[in-house]
Amino acid sequence: MGGRPSVHINLFAMQDDKLIDTLKLPEDLRTLSLPELEQVASELRDELIDTVSASGGHFASSLGATEISVALHRVFDTPHDRLIWDVGHQAYVHKMLTGRRSKMGGIRTKEGISGFLKRSESPFDAFGAGHAGTSVSAAVGMRVALDTMDPSRYVCAIIGDGSLTSGMAFEALNHAGDLGLKKFIVILNDNEMSISQNVGALSWLFSRAVTGETGSKARQTFKDLYRKGYVPDFLYKAIDRAEEATQGFFSSPAMLFEAFGFRYIGPVDGNNLSEVVVALENAKRQDIPVIVHCRTVKGKGYEPAEEDPIMWHGVVPFDRSKGEFKAANTTPAPKKLPSYTGVFADTLIDIAKGDKRVVGITAAMPSGTGLDKLQKTLPDQFFDVGICEQHAVTYAAGLACEGLRPVAAIYSTFLQRGYDQVVHDVCIQNLPVTFAIDRGGVVGNDGETHQGVFDIAYLRPIPNIVIMSPKDENELRHMLHTAVLRNGPSAVRYPRGNGIGVTLDEKLTPLPIGKGEIARNGSDALIVAFGPIIANALKAADILSNQHSISCTVINARYAKPLDTELLAQELPKYSVVCTIEDHAIAGGFGAAVVEFANDAEIPLQCSIKRFGVEDTFVPHASQAEQHIMNGCDAESIVRYVRERRAARQLVA
Q1: Residue 503 lies in a domain
Q2: pLDDT tens digits, residue range 68-123?
Q3: Is 389 a catalytic residue?
Q4: Residue 126, Cα to own-chain centre: how many angstroms?
């Protein structure tokens, strides 16, 4: 990625000593002058750029939230007061302020700190998160509990404008307003989506007047007089309505949030530390729930990230001075391998060009799912519904009802959020919706919240759906074609990362539903593989053959539902060692389906079936290869098991 390097000169970073190095954080923030706070923010931003340029990570959002992070820890007594960050993309500076500066270089690596919020990592991470839209709901629950346990604490949810498109966030806002919660503040970090026209200084001036110390005291006095009967009911209601109407005149978002029962403060320049501190201090004075609307610049302080915040949202290591991403390694690859996501997107475009009924749907992840390509090529056949997977699924069902062939491209971990809709709105009605399940399997450095290892288990029990996964990127093309043609719901799952570089067939051919294939013939052991992790099975088979004279048959299952029962019934009884392998949880997954079939069909097995996959644990952040090793579904683990079982069988014989 090219781009102009930052021209920002950090005078503080040029000094020998950093102010931040002399402070006990975050406590000492509460003793600093405003210029000193601004110096701390500048030093943090500069250090964040240096750190992420070396390690990679979620970048632009955290840069934009630097002043908000500093202001929150200045105004509130953390961790006594609770900060609940939505997702965690904007919380790197929060981590740096709460004892993890020295650990940022290892963020998102094996045994390093998480790239998201994690309760077990720090008492300052009040609520763990990796998915969008959870913060306000969690904050409401905490506030209600603290009203009983410790009413002195404040509870603050920090949510981005993108996350606010989640229906769950609005449900929580509605509940909080209905409860009339005190010491409950929502900070809206508005850094990308245009919620409203910023009416600038006039609106902020009015918010300061209404919510400042004088205005808040006057309002409380007026309410006290009303409660004591000194102010007539008609007068109290008239003044209250007038205040709301006036605030709505100056700032249209106020009308929305006031309807939820919140007091609105803003819009505030979220990259102006003084304004944010004043807004938060005013928010603390209110006796009803409060929204503080902060407008920020995503990528603030690093010019390439400001110019292209989407590209710089989550980054690999980069050259800070040049604004260019570094190559993954110094050894040039013989050829550039296509990603599964890219092959999916290109194939969908090919299909959609020939069939206007085919449309693509994303839940605010056009670049992540590759559908930004469809958006550019066939904009009328592309839909982005925002961060609301439940709506995405039912919206697809509605499209299918009227004759379209929707393809909903959703990460495995996010499709979990639309599970009821998959059952109730798509599968019960047997509608031709295709779920393109990206990031199926372990995903690497995003960690526990993002692993796509449960989709087979939660989809397999549902009637009418077909679940498939390709052995490589070429088979992915044919599977997508097969799914779109099918008159019923289908799921095609594929992993994060690159394919193996096979030749891609130009002509798309539908695959027979529920039919696998023998990828390699052998006589001593059987490995039944589902999806691209077949590469580990084939590698293991090579090692066993070349180094240990053990001959393996490897089956490319293709389908987890329906299984190729004919092929399994034919092959399972032949071998003294039988394994399954999948990039998915062992519980309820593909291997479980094979075991269930063998049991129910009373297949005369020579041995029990060993299942390789993800163990009964949440997989921490590490590389995908490291995660496979952690769970014992790498080629070496397969080799070790097959050798041991063969040796044991020979001893018995």
Answers
A1: no
A2: 999 999 999 999 999 999 987 888 999 999 999 888 888 888 888 888 888 999 99
A3: yes
A4: 19
pLDDT tens per residue across span 513-531:
999 999 999 999 999 999 9
3-state secondary structure string across 295-352? ECCCCCCCHHHHHCCCCCCEECCEECCCCEECCCCCCCCCCCCCEHHHHHHHHHHHHH
Expressed as residue numbers, the domain containing 375 is 340-493
Out of 306, 389, 582, 626, which one is annotated catalytic? Answer: 389
Q: Which residues of 614-649 are buried (b: 16+ CB within 10 A; e: fewer)?
A: beeeebbbbebebbbebbebbbebbbebbbebbeee
SS3 187: strand
CB-CB contact of 611 with 592 (8 Å): yes
By CB atoms closer than 10 A (0-12, 13-18, 19+), residue 58 is buried
What CATH number corresponds to the domain at position 90?
3.40.50.970
Q: How many domains does one find in the chain?
A: 3
- Spatial distance between the Cα atoms of 183 and 164, rounded to a whole number of angstroms: 21
Active-site residue, from 295, 417, 496, 561: 417
Say if 322 falls within a structural domain. no
Cα→Cα distances 349→78, 376, 489, Å: 50, 10, 20
Counting every residue written for the chain, the total comes to 653
Strand pairing class (434-438; 405-411): parallel
Question: Among the three residues 458, 493, 528, which one is the final residue of a domain in this structure?
Answer: 493
> How are beta strands 263-269 and 324-325 bridged, if at all?
unpaired
pTM of the model: 0.77
Structure tokens at 91: 């919380």
The reply to whether 18 belongs to the active site is no
The one-character DSSP state at 618 is: P
Strands 314-315 and 318-319: unpaired
Alpha-carbon gap, residue 359 to 375, rounded angstroms: 10
At position 591, the amino acid (one-letter code) is: G
